[in-house]
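Progress report, Aim 2. The chain analyzed during this reporting quarter is listed below.
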Amino acid sequence: MEKILVVEDELSISTLIKFNLEKAGYTVTTAMDGKEGLEIARRELPDLIVLDLMLPLMDGMEVCKTLRMEKNNTPILMLTAKDEELDKILGLELGADDYMTKPFSPREVLARVRAILRRSKQTPNMAAETVEEQVFSMGPLQIFPEKYEATFHNEKLELTPKEFELLLYLAKNQGRVMTRDQLLNAVWNYDYVGDSRIVDVHISHLREKIEEDTKQPKHIKTVRGLGYKFEG
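Predicted structure tokens for the chain:
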């Protein structure tokens, strides 16, 4: 039974999420502040964390940042309020896998949770699917699917799981224009109803790590009005 940690200080929201996740068959632990949530995440190693942005003692942004700095790649679904657009982007930049804007329906939470968990389960199988192609070499960039690693100028890149999956998918489709919707479906395995911001944020982060000049990228190019194209 998969374990989910819900870190939310509004009792009514926490109770609602917990009830619906348990009804769906998940084991749920809750925390009412960021510090407690961080301690539980470290101790119990949940399969997924539902993390509110605004929390007492330690906010969700800091919790997310701390976990990622500790190399803890537990998937994180961040909860934000309507007027926190900038914070959504910062959350994704710090390593959150997805975000939801309040108010939301329990059904939507369950759909997002299932999609994230399904994708995280598929991750280890990527190596098996790419046994014949052990290394993707494109100039100074090398991708090792079996190791789940990539290097640039022979230095290991610090990539989040989603950044690696996005990079690998782009490399596999080198030379092809990929729309944002295609990337959403392939990497996040979820219908974001036209919300492509999560793709743009991850593309921006990849460019910072593999481009000599992010303003004139050589590898991940924007195709205006369509999406992105990867070139070696």
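Residues 123-133 have pLDDT under 50 and may be disordered. DSSP finds nine helices and twelve strands in the chain. These observations will guide the mutagenesis work planned for the next reporting period.
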